[in-house]
Automatic annotation (TrEMBL):
Assigned keywords, A-Z: Amino-acid biosynthesis, NAD, Oxidoreductase, Serine biosynthesis
Functional note: Catalyzes the reversible oxidation of 3-phospho-D-glycerate to 3-phosphonooxypyruvate, the first step of the phosphorylated L-serine biosynthesis pathway. Also catalyzes the reversible oxidation of 2-hydroxyglutarate to 2-oxoglutarate.
Pathways involved: Amino-acid biosynthesis; L-serine biosynthesis; L-serine from 3-phospho-D-glycerate: step 1/3
Protein's recorded name: D-3-phosphoglycerate dehydrogenase
CDD domains xrefs: ACT_3PGDH-xct (cd04902), PGDH_4 (cd12173)
One Pfam family recorded for the sequence: PGDH_inter
GO molecular function ontology, one term from the record: phosphoglycerate dehydrogenase activity
Enzyme class: oxidoreductase
Organism for this UniProt entry: Desulfosarcina widdelii
One GO term (biological process): L-serine biosynthetic process
Gene: serA_2
Length: 526
């Protein structure tokens, strides 16, 4: 078995590969995409961090590749659907660097508030600027933490130790859980209004890109300081620059950038900005943790077939996987749909298996539902191994039922998701041998293919209603690839599912919401 390490990996991990029986390891870092493509066909495993781009093009050339292992968390650089399509397992190491990253956020906040990098640069230039570089204490100041996951929770805890008042915003963690951890749960506007320092610890998702933008800065306390050690783009860089210039934001500490490396940018050059080159996870300890974890996972996979921390496969044999594969995809998509339909934190999930599931192990299918529900919230952190634990940590109770009867199809899976605000019911089945279909949403029957960029529209069932939707999209050059109409079992409403070639921009969604026969529009991504 041949392993290629294409990004910098801690020595302990490399040594584990070298010492593993039956495994040959090559370390070739910094390769250009074409050079990597030329050699990839001879490798069974690829070990990466964030530099190597595992694109469709690369995967097409990787004829022997069985596994991609990420020493760290983020998988933005891996085409996961393409890897899944090719049966390549994608693994990460979700916990090895969280303490280190949280410590970096605290270090950045302290360095910023006490002008440490500016002081160093000024001294090096022979200046002694005590007055200009006067800082601010953090004692008794309010820290707003956005995202109370693994890293956000550690940051909150460390800041409490520094005697800060910590307030938390995370709409997917119940206020009770935040209170149980000893913190105050607040809404986003409340956090903006009160925080002297704001640190973001959310994944980069459709709805977190540009989360800290012009509108958000305007709601913040004048003189607030911003820390981003999560992902570039969560803080809008040009809006941040303007907010620094206007004085609304007093300083910013950035470890991550919209484009990495960011090159010469006015933001990086700004005198009240301090920066590090994505060093959040770069400590000896964290790099040892993730290198050892990824090496162990890959060696076990190559030698014993054990799958740990895979984001795209459960831990089952190839034979079982062949049978349950279509149901895993269906369950994952149903969970993902529920996560996008339900308002408020989900507290309860009920999974009902109805009809004939002979020969199918249903427990990975339930796991796939939970993974689907959590993916839009925590992205690469959830996998087939930790989905149940993560759901439990978030206070989500999971119940499974099964019955031999199914009302419409040979077999059908129904997922009920109950939040603090609503209940949503989605049913699905497999058409033919492997095609997932959503066949019911609440009271609407339909046959919808859950893939790509979609929009769910509720409208009044009258002539012209579908026409006005098509016209609005056409006016904005958005092509409808597929359209499905579902009818309410009783009542005068339709639901329409559109699959579009490109995502529908927010302003077009808003225009559709204003149409006379349209009730609601929910953009969906699969
Ligand atoms: N700088 C680095 O080197 C580095 C290292 C590791 C992780 N990271 C990044 O740090 C971030 C956090 O990582 P983690 O391991 O704590 O992730 P996590 O999945 O454990 O936690 C993320 C939290 O964000 C919450 N969330 C999702 N959407 C939200 C929203 N709209 N508003 C508020 N909260 C929301 C989720 O509920 C979850 O609790 C990720 O972006 C990760 O990629 C950066
Ligand atoms: O996602 C991660 O684990 C961090 O962002 C670290 O990325 P790196 O391994 O490229 O430093």
């Amino acid at each position: 078995m041949k392993v290629l390490v294409s990004d910098n990996l801690g020595e302990d991990g490399i040594r584990m590969f070298q010492e593993a029986a039956g495994i040959d390891v090559d370390v070739k870092t910094g390769l250009e995409p074409d050079a990597l493509k030329e050699i990839i066909a001879s490798y069974d495993a690829l070990v990466i961090r964030s530099a190597t781009k595992v694109t469709k093009d690369l995967l097409q050339a990787a004829s022997k590749l069985k596994v991609v292992g990420r020493a760290g968390i983020g998988l933005d650089n891996v085409d996961i659907p393409e890897a899944t399509q090719r049966g390549i397992v994608v693994m990460n190491t979700p916990t090895g660097n969280v303490i280190t990253t949280a410590e970096h956020a605290i270090a950045m906040m302290l360095s910023l508030t006490r002008n440490i990098p500016t002081g160093t640069a000024s001294l090096r230039q022979g200046r002694w600027e005590k007055k200009k570089l006067q800082g601010r204490e953090i004692f008794n100041k309010t820290l707003g933490v956005i995202g109370f996951g693994k890293i956000g929770a550690i940051v909150a805890d460390r800041a409490r130790g520094l005697r800060m008042n910590v307030i938390i915003h995370d709409p997917f963690v119940t206020p009770e859980q935040i209170q149980k951890a000893g913190f105050e749960s607040v809404d986003l506007d409340g956090l903006y209004e009160r925080a002297d320092y704001i640190t973001v610890h959310v994944p980069k998702l459709k709805n977190t890109i540009g989360m800290l933008n012009k509108a958000a800065f305007e709601k913040m306390k004048p003189g607030v300081m911003i820390v981003n050690c999560a992902r570039g783009g969560i803080v809008d860089e040009s809006d941040l620059y303007e907010a620094l210039e206007s004085g609304r934001v007093a300083g910013a500490a950035l470890d991550v950038f919209e484009t990495e490396p960011p090159g010469k940018s006015p933001l990086v050059e700004h005198e009240r900005v301090i920066c590090t080159p994505h060093l959040g996870a770069s400590t000896r300890e964290a790099q040892t943790n993730v290198a050892v974890a990824v090496a162990r996972q890959i060696i076990d996979f190559l030698t014993e077939g054990t799958v740990v921390n895979a984001v795209n496969m459960p831990s089952v044999t190839g034979e079982v996987l062949e049978k349950i594969g279509p149901y895993l995809t269906l369950a994952d998509r149903m969970g993902c749909l529920q996560a996008q339909l339900v308002r408020g934190p989900i507290k309860e999930v009920v999974i009902e298996f109805c009809g004939d599931f002979k020969g199918i192990d249903l427990s990975p299918v339930s796991t796939a539902v939970l993974k689907g529900i959590l993916t839009p919230v925590v992205k690469d952190d959830v996998n087939f191994v930790n989905a149940h634990v993560m759901a439990q940590q978030r206070g989500i109770t999971v119940t499974e039922t099964s019955s031999a009867e199914s009302d419409y199809y040979v077999n059908q899976i129904t997922v009920r998701a109950i939040s603090t605000e609503m209940e949503s019911v989605v049913s699905g089945t497999i058409f033919g041998k492997k095609d997932p279909r959503i066949v019911k949403i609440d009271k609407f029957r339909l046959e919808m293919i859950p893939e790509g960029h979609m929009a769910l529209i509720q409208n009044i069932d009258k002539p012209g209603s579908i026409g006005e939707i098509g016209t609005t999209l056409g006016q904005h050059q958005i092509n409808i690839g597929r359209m499905q109409v579902g009818q309410e079992e009783e009542g005068d409403r339709n639901i329409v599912f559109l699959t579009t070639d490109t995502p529908i921009p927010e302003d077009v969604v808003e225009k559709m919401r204003q149409l006379s026969l349209v009730k609601t529009v929910t953009p969906l991504e699969f």
